[in-house]
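Hey, resending since the last one bounced:
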Amino acid sequence: MNYLDLVQRYGIFLSSRNFQTNLLQIMGNKLLFLSQIRGNRTLLLLQIMGNNAVFLSQIKGKRAIIGTTDTTSGA
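The structure tokens again:
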């Protein structure tokens, strides 16, 4: 089973169930993190470049900054 097979099977399965989930798949040296997959979309998919791990969510610029402190208050 290759990567596209996993994407099609899990993506279509999860979207047809219409719920949110966190799906973690480790393939070789690459880490895929699919977060909050919603029913109307076939998939929210990240693109893996080279051997880097890329996180699904709004990634802007050249890289995602992980572990930054957020001082905004959501009260």
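Residues 22 and 35 are 5 Å apart (CA to CA).

Sorry for the duplicate.
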